[in-house]
Amino acid sequence: MTYIRETCGCCDCVKQCGALDIVFVIDSSESVGLSNFTLEKNFVINTISRLGSMASDPKSPTGTRVGVVQFSHEGTFEAIGLDDASINSMSSFKTAVKKLQWIAGGTFTPSALKFAYDSLIRNSKRARAKVSVVVVTDGRFDPRDDDSQLRYLCNDPNVVVNAIGIGDMFDKKHDSETLLSIACNNKNRTTEMKQYTDLVADNFIEKMETVLCPDPIIKCPALPCETDLDVAPCVGRPVDLVFLLDGSERLGMENFDHALKFVQMVANTLTIAKTRSDQKGVRLALIEFGKESENQVAFPLTHDQKGIASGLSSLRYLDVSSAVGPAVFKTINEIMGKGATRKTRRGAEVSFVFITDGFTNITNLDEAASAMRREQIVSTVIATGSDMDEDVLIKLAMGDRNAIFKGPKFSDLLQPSLFNQFIRWVC
């Protein structure tokens, strides 16, 4: 099922899925890695975004409620409850999911499934609600855990379990038998993937949309549009955000100026870290890339608003051909740094934002994408115009089409609707 968003007056139509309780159980063990854990969170957010409006009151007998359990070794499970009164909108749900931090320990999958049922489902499920559980893991678990609990969710006939197994960051094959046990021996409820980027692929998100909400009702409310952000962006966690601006002649001076204004707007909107080592808030950096050896750093990772403004005002438009691969390596080596010279904050989500139409020298592009994965980097792409190289954009976004923001012209990204969508995405 493909859900096409329509417009009624000013506002988007919304999808209603009836009384639906969804619990995601996501693997936060060391073998998953920070980048893949972020993809798991994006999968959760992207899937729920497709399902329309959430229940405004968790005690309501109707509407969609969502819970999340992240698990690693024993005693480290963390949850967003189905009946959490603070989760009453997509914005509040997304904020809660984004705040989940990678645990990076062992893998106690059976215990996590028991925890999910006992803590989120048993006493909070609604009488007429369909309960769906989506488990994301590499399939293996610590042998010290109780394997009899793999089928714990199967003891309740009103709970439907979908198990997704993914080869982890060390490319080890997941355990298919374990997946089958989690899914109550229903092979149709298991999905095997080779890499975590497949989680956020459009076709798989559409599949999950159909699985979780097969018969939606579409309604168009007569409500005024909201253009203001309703969440405080990037408050509770550290984010190091690096812009990579394509300075090729295709961009043009006018769009170059728009791009700089866009970055300044981002700096003015996000909650900036108070100090260099602050474990909350955002630090920004910007590099403009041209030919292989022609790159300019407007400003390195910083929390200094004056330094950001000064770097933007003095940045020169290169107006040459461009090569994105070398720019990625330069950014990793010099702006992020490595080892003792590491410049990103401990535990920070490192996010690259590419501003390009994709028409760039693609030498070493695959190697650059692999390097981003190794460094646990989350990527977003901003592309404008009618002529784009989709294949390059997808590679830069590491397979996640939802991470690509497009506009007919660059000035559109300065408008509240698209700009706020971008801010919500990176935060």
Descriptive terms for the model:
Rossmann fold, 16 strands, single chain, 22% strand, alpha/beta, 2 domains, 11 helices, disordered N terminus, 427 residues, 6-stranded mixed beta sheet, vWFA_dom_sf
What does this structure look like?
The chain has 427 residues and is an alpha/beta fold. The chain folds into two domains: 9-219, 3-Layer(aba) Sandwich (Rossmann fold); 238-426, 3-Layer(aba) Sandwich (Rossmann fold). The protein contains eleven helices and 16 strands. Strands 6-5-4-7-8-9 form a six-stranded mixed β-sheet, with helices on both faces. Strands 13-12-11-14-15-16 form a six-stranded mixed β-sheet, sandwiched between helices. A two-stranded antiparallel sheet has the order 1-2. Helix 1 packs antiparallel against helix 2 (90-98), helix 1 (34-50) packs across helix 5 (202-212) and helix 6 (253-269) runs antiparallel to helix 7. The longest helix is centred in the N-terminal third of the chain and has 17 residues, at 34-50. The two termini are 29 Å apart. The relative contact order is 0.12. Residues 1-11 and 223-232 have low confidence and may be disordered.
Please mark out the parts with pLDDT under 50 across 5 or more consecutive residues, or reply none. Answer: 1-11, 223-232
In CATH, the topology of the largest domain is named Rossmann fold
Largest sheet: 6 strands, mixed
Q: What integer value in Å does the Rg equal? A: 22 Å
Instruction: Give me the secondary-structure category.
Output: alpha/beta
Overall pLDDT confidence: 87
Percent helix range: 25-40%
- Architecture per CATH nomenclature, i.e. the level-2 architecture of the largest domain: 3-Layer(aba) Sandwich
